[in-house]
Protein backbone atom coordinates (compact mmCIF):
# COMPACT_ATOMS: atom_id res chain seq x y z
CA UNK A 1 0.00 0.00 0.00
CA UNK A 2 1.33 3.43 -0.96
CA UNK A 3 2.24 5.64 1.99
CA UNK A 4 1.32 9.32 2.27
CA UNK A 5 4.96 10.23 1.67
CA UNK A 6 5.19 8.06 -1.45
CA UNK A 7 1.93 9.49 -2.77
CA UNK A 8 3.21 13.03 -2.27
CA UNK A 9 6.45 12.17 -4.06
CA UNK A 10 4.57 10.64 -6.97
CA UNK A 11 2.33 13.71 -7.19
CA UNK A 12 5.41 15.95 -7.47
CA UNK A 13 6.83 13.70 -10.20
CA UNK A 14 3.56 13.97 -12.10
CA UNK A 15 3.72 17.74 -11.72
CA UNK A 16 7.15 17.74 -13.38
CA UNK A 17 5.93 15.68 -16.33
CA UNK A 18 2.86 17.87 -16.71
CA UNK A 19 5.03 20.99 -16.56
CA UNK A 20 7.41 19.67 -19.22
CA UNK A 21 4.55 18.89 -21.60
CA UNK A 22 2.94 22.27 -20.92
CA UNK A 23 6.18 24.12 -21.66
CA UNK A 24 6.70 22.23 -24.92
CA UNK A 25 3.17 22.97 -26.08
CA UNK A 26 3.28 26.63 -25.03
CA UNK A 27 6.73 27.46 -26.43
CA UNK A 28 6.99 25.01 -29.33
CA UNK A 29 10.49 23.96 -28.29
CA UNK A 30 12.54 22.36 -25.49
CA UNK A 31 14.94 25.23 -24.84
CA UNK A 32 13.67 25.73 -21.31
CA UNK A 33 15.99 25.05 -18.37
CA UNK A 34 15.49 22.80 -15.36
CA UNK A 35 14.89 25.97 -13.37
CA UNK A 36 12.06 26.92 -15.74
CA UNK A 37 10.67 23.41 -15.45
CA UNK A 38 10.79 23.45 -11.65
CA UNK A 39 9.10 26.84 -11.55
CA UNK A 40 6.36 25.65 -13.92
CA UNK A 41 5.79 22.63 -11.66
CA UNK A 42 5.73 24.77 -8.51
CA UNK A 43 8.80 23.07 -7.06
CA UNK A 44 12.30 24.05 -6.05
CA UNK A 45 15.13 23.32 -8.46
CA UNK A 46 16.73 20.94 -5.95
CA UNK A 47 13.48 19.01 -5.55
CA UNK A 48 13.07 18.63 -9.32
CA UNK A 49 16.60 17.27 -9.69
CA UNK A 50 16.19 14.91 -6.74
CA UNK A 51 12.89 13.51 -7.99
CA UNK A 52 13.87 12.80 -11.60
CA UNK A 53 17.25 14.21 -12.62
CA UNK A 54 18.37 16.19 -15.66
CA UNK A 55 16.12 17.72 -18.30
CA UNK A 56 16.98 14.98 -20.78
CA UNK A 57 15.95 12.37 -18.21
CA UNK A 58 12.64 14.16 -17.69
CA UNK A 59 11.97 14.36 -21.44
CA UNK A 60 12.97 10.77 -22.16
CA UNK A 61 10.78 9.58 -19.29
CA UNK A 62 7.94 11.67 -20.69
CA UNK A 63 8.44 10.13 -24.13
CA UNK A 64 8.45 6.60 -22.70
CA UNK A 65 5.26 7.29 -20.76
CA UNK A 66 3.56 8.35 -23.98
CA UNK A 67 5.04 5.37 -25.85
CA UNK A 68 3.54 3.01 -23.28
CA UNK A 69 0.13 3.77 -24.79
CA UNK A 70 1.25 2.08 -28.01
CA UNK A 71 2.09 -1.13 -26.17
CA UNK A 72 -1.36 -1.48 -24.62
CA UNK A 73 -3.36 -4.66 -25.35
CA UNK A 74 -4.83 -4.80 -28.81
CA UNK A 75 -1.83 -5.84 -30.91
CA UNK A 76 -3.23 -9.29 -31.75
CA UNK A 77 -5.51 -9.40 -34.81
CA UNK A 78 -9.23 -9.52 -34.14
CA UNK A 79 -11.22 -12.55 -35.24
CA UNK A 80 -11.99 -12.47 -38.96
CA UNK A 81 -9.40 -9.79 -39.76
CA UNK A 82 -7.06 -10.73 -42.62
CA UNK A 83 -3.36 -10.62 -41.77
CA UNK A 84 -2.72 -7.93 -44.38
CA UNK A 85 -5.36 -5.74 -42.72
CA UNK A 86 -3.91 -6.54 -39.29
CA UNK A 87 -0.50 -5.29 -40.39
CA UNK A 88 -2.01 -2.18 -41.99
CA UNK A 89 -4.04 -1.35 -38.89
CA UNK A 90 -0.99 -1.80 -36.68
CA UNK A 91 1.09 0.46 -38.92
CA UNK A 92 -1.52 3.21 -38.93
CA UNK A 93 -1.81 3.01 -35.15
CA UNK A 94 1.96 3.36 -34.74
CA UNK A 95 2.22 6.31 -37.13
CA UNK A 96 -0.76 8.15 -35.60
CA UNK A 97 0.86 7.84 -32.18
CA UNK A 98 3.32 10.51 -33.34
CA UNK A 99 1.74 12.34 -36.28
CA UNK A 100 -1.49 12.84 -34.35
CA UNK A 101 0.29 15.28 -32.03
CA UNK A 102 3.09 16.99 -34.01
CA UNK A 103 3.21 20.11 -31.80
CA UNK A 104 4.35 17.91 -28.94
CA UNK A 105 6.39 15.14 -30.55
CA UNK A 106 8.43 17.12 -33.08
CA UNK A 107 10.14 19.47 -30.59
CA UNK A 108 10.46 16.69 -28.02
CA UNK A 109 12.10 14.25 -30.43
CA UNK A 110 14.37 16.88 -32.01
CA UNK A 111 15.90 17.42 -28.60
CA UNK A 112 16.12 13.77 -27.63
CA UNK A 113 17.66 12.62 -30.92
CA UNK A 114 20.71 14.76 -30.11
CA UNK A 115 21.08 13.54 -26.52
CA UNK A 116 22.80 10.23 -25.73
CA UNK A 117 21.10 8.41 -22.87
CA UNK A 118 22.25 4.91 -21.86
CA UNK A 119 19.06 4.16 -19.94
CA UNK A 120 15.99 5.86 -21.42
CA UNK A 121 16.81 5.76 -25.14
CA UNK A 122 17.31 1.95 -25.13
CA UNK A 123 14.06 1.68 -23.16
CA UNK A 124 12.23 3.69 -25.82
CA UNK A 125 13.69 1.62 -28.64
CA UNK A 126 12.83 -1.60 -26.81
CA UNK A 127 9.20 -0.47 -26.49
CA UNK A 128 8.98 0.03 -30.24
CA UNK A 129 10.59 -3.29 -31.04
CA UNK A 130 8.28 -5.07 -28.58
CA UNK A 131 5.27 -3.51 -30.33
CA UNK A 132 6.28 -4.83 -33.74
CA UNK A 133 7.23 -8.21 -32.30
CA UNK A 134 3.72 -8.44 -30.88
CA UNK A 135 2.27 -7.47 -34.27
CA UNK A 136 4.29 -10.18 -36.04
CA UNK A 137 3.88 -12.94 -33.47
CA UNK A 138 0.53 -14.21 -34.88
CA UNK A 139 2.30 -14.88 -38.19
CA UNK A 140 4.92 -17.01 -36.45
CA UNK A 141 2.31 -18.80 -34.34
CA UNK A 142 0.34 -19.68 -37.48
CA UNK A 143 3.45 -21.01 -39.23
CA UNK A 144 3.26 -18.39 -41.96
CA UNK A 145 6.83 -17.07 -41.83
CA UNK A 146 9.55 -18.42 -44.15
CA UNK A 147 11.56 -21.35 -42.80
CA UNK A 148 14.12 -20.24 -40.24
CA UNK A 149 12.50 -16.82 -39.69
CA UNK A 150 11.02 -15.61 -36.43
CA UNK A 151 8.62 -12.82 -35.52
CA UNK A 152 11.57 -10.95 -34.00
CA UNK A 153 13.37 -10.99 -37.39
CA UNK A 154 10.45 -9.33 -39.16
CA UNK A 155 9.91 -6.96 -36.24
CA UNK A 156 13.49 -5.68 -36.35
CA UNK A 157 13.15 -4.82 -40.06
CA UNK A 158 9.88 -2.95 -39.57
CA UNK A 159 11.24 -1.18 -36.50
CA UNK A 160 14.28 0.07 -38.43
CA UNK A 161 12.10 1.41 -41.25
CA UNK A 162 9.68 2.96 -38.76
CA UNK A 163 12.38 4.77 -36.75
CA UNK A 164 14.04 6.02 -39.94
CA UNK A 165 10.77 7.38 -41.31
CA UNK A 166 9.96 8.83 -37.89
CA UNK A 167 13.25 10.76 -37.95
CA UNK A 168 12.39 12.16 -41.39
CA UNK A 169 8.93 13.21 -40.17
CA UNK A 170 10.37 14.82 -37.03
CA UNK A 171 12.58 17.05 -39.17
CA UNK A 172 9.66 17.80 -41.50
CA UNK A 173 11.30 16.07 -44.46
CA UNK A 174 8.34 13.67 -44.58
CA UNK A 175 4.70 14.56 -44.24
CA UNK A 176 2.49 12.34 -42.12
CA UNK A 177 1.23 10.78 -45.35
CA UNK A 178 4.75 10.03 -46.60
CA UNK A 179 5.63 8.55 -43.20
CA UNK A 180 2.67 6.18 -43.50
CA UNK A 181 3.49 5.32 -47.13
CA UNK A 182 7.07 4.33 -46.32
CA UNK A 183 5.91 2.00 -43.57
CA UNK A 184 3.19 0.55 -45.81
CA UNK A 185 5.79 -0.18 -48.51
CA UNK A 186 7.96 -2.03 -46.02
CA UNK A 187 5.03 -4.16 -44.87
CA UNK A 188 3.96 -4.85 -48.47
CA UNK A 189 7.43 -6.19 -49.28
CA UNK A 190 7.41 -8.37 -46.18
CA UNK A 191 4.00 -9.72 -47.18
CA UNK A 192 5.63 -11.22 -50.26
CA UNK A 193 7.54 -13.58 -47.99
CA UNK A 194 4.57 -14.53 -45.82
CA UNK A 195 2.91 -17.86 -46.50
CA UNK A 196 -0.77 -17.93 -47.34
CA UNK A 197 -1.25 -20.55 -44.63
CA UNK A 198 0.91 -22.63 -42.35
CA UNK A 199 1.30 -25.41 -44.91
CA UNK A 200 2.05 -23.27 -47.97
CA UNK A 201 5.49 -22.93 -49.51
CA UNK A 202 7.57 -19.87 -48.50
CA UNK A 203 7.58 -16.91 -50.84
CA UNK A 204 3.92 -16.94 -51.85
CA UNK A 205 1.78 -13.88 -51.20
CA UNK A 206 -0.89 -13.96 -48.52
CA UNK A 207 -4.47 -12.77 -48.06
UniProtKB/TrEMBL annotation:
<feature type="DNA-binding region" description="H-T-H motif">
    <location>
        <begin position="33"/>
        <end position="52"/>
    </location>
</feature>
<feature type="domain" description="HTH tetR-type">
    <location>
        <begin position="10"/>
        <end position="70"/>
    </location>
</feature>
<keyword id="KW-0804">Transcription</keyword>
<dbReference type="InterPro" id="IPR001647">
    <property type="entry name" value="HTH_TetR"/>
</dbReference>
<dbReference type="InterPro" id="IPR050109">
    <property type="entry name" value="HTH-type_TetR-like_transc_reg"/>
</dbReference>
<protein>
    <submittedName>
        <fullName>TetR family transcriptional regulator</fullName>
    </submittedName>
</protein>
<keyword id="KW-0238">DNA-binding</keyword>
<dbReference type="InterPro" id="IPR009057">
    <property type="entry name" value="Homeodomain-like_sf"/>
</dbReference>
<keyword id="KW-0805">Transcription regulation</keyword>
